[in-house]
UniProtKB/TrEMBL annotation:
Keywords: Oxidoreductase
Family per record: Belongs to the short-chain dehydrogenases/reductases (SDR) family.
Domain spans labelled Ketoreductase: 9-185
NCBIfam families, per the entry: PRK07231.1, PRK12826.1-2
Protein name, entry field: Ketoacyl reductase
A Pfam family hit: adh_short
EC number: 1.3.1.-
InterPro entries for the chain: KR_dom, NAD(P)-bd_dom_sf, Sc_DH/Rdtase_CS, SDR, SDR_fam
GO molecular function annotations of the record: oxidoreductase activity
Organism for this UniProt entry: Meiothermus hypogaeus
Enzyme's top EC category: oxidoreductase
């Protein structure tokens, strides 16, 4: 077995400074890819890059800004060459009952989770078409496959990511470029800690009770580890995964089937 199946490939991971994105970056780097990590916070990107034993470039970029995205992808390509792997991982999850979901929250969720994925894909795709090979993996969520109460805007955005994935996969099916979504269940990251804090504040439950409540969604009775999500992403990026496209793969202990 080739220990470095992605040697020579340049992968961009948005939101690569922490959480699931950092785990994905580590997994792709171990498989030999050169990495560009993108996110808004330069110091967390720098800290992550220093921890990685690989060729890593960083670009600060807010994925909701068309101009920043264009600039960052251009700079990444100049630094490490053509981008043939894109992992759209940057995301945020705010919750409110629907009656308190104002237009601002709605637009924030669509903007970062869905429009960000659109903008980064538009920026990376021409290079993949030119290279005649590409892998696009969108980190959606189980909330892109089913509903949960109090996250209608987030869930709508993530369902949108799955729809974008399926349509683009068909458009690119004959171009040697695959497009897939990975849909994690509740996973151990800062994003989850923020959800736990909100549950504690709104319901008076203890943090342990709130955590246990989220873990109960998963038939395995636990939270998902970022590395488990990262391994699914790596598999989709491998050269041998060419027949896998248009899929939305839940990494959630059987929560969705
Ligand atoms: P974290 O909050 O730990 O990390 C989110 C990452 O996204 C950070 O690196 C952050 O970097 C980046 N980010 C956020 N907003 C922007 C923006 N506007 N532009 C660029 N980067 C941005 O979350 P997770 O690791 O948990 O989440 C990663 C992905 O996985 C998200 O898409 C999330 O929806 C999804 N997911 C997570 C689940 C979970 O339970 N944790 C479950 C299902 C899906 P910075 O702040 O520096 O910009």
């Amino acid at each position: 077995m080739n220990p470095q199946p992605l040697a020579g490939k340049h992968a961009v991971v948005t939101g690569g400074g922490r959480g699931i994105g950092a785990a994905i970056a580590a997994e792709l780097a171990q498989a030999g890819a050169r990495l560009t990590l993108m996110g808004r916070n330069r110091s967390s990107l720098e800290a992550r890059a220093q921890q990685m034993n690989a060729e890593v470039h960083i670009e600060t970029c807010d994925v909701t800004s068309p101009d920043e995205v264009k600039r960052a992808f251009r700079a990444a390509q100049e630094a490490l060459g053509p981008i043939t792997i894109l992992v759209n991982n940057a995301g945020q999850a705010e919750s409110q009952p629907f009656s308190k979901t104002d237009l601002g929250l709605w637009q924030r969720m669509l903007s970062v989770n869905l429009t960000g994925t659109f903008l980064c894909t538009q920026a990376a795709l021409p290079g993949m078409l030119e290279a005649g090979w590409g892998r696009i993996v969108n980190i959606a969520s189980t909330a892109g496959l089913k509903g949960y109460p109090y996250v209608s805007a987030y869930s709508a955005a993530k369902h949108g990511v799955v729809g974008l994935t399926r349509s683009l996969a068909l458009e690119l099916a004959r171009q040697n470029i695959t497009v897939n979504a990975v849909c994690p269940g509740f996973s151990e990251t800062e994003l989850l800690e923020a959800s736990i804090a909100r549950i504690v504040q709104k319901t008076g439950r203890t943090p342990a009770e709130a955590r246990a409540e989220l873990a109960r969604h998963n038939p395995q009775g636990r939270l998902v580890e970022p590395t488990e999500v990262a391994q699914a992403v790596l598999w989709l990026c491998l050269p041998g995964s060419a027949a896998l496209t248009g899929q939305a793969i839940a990494v959630a202990g059987g929560e969705v089937m």
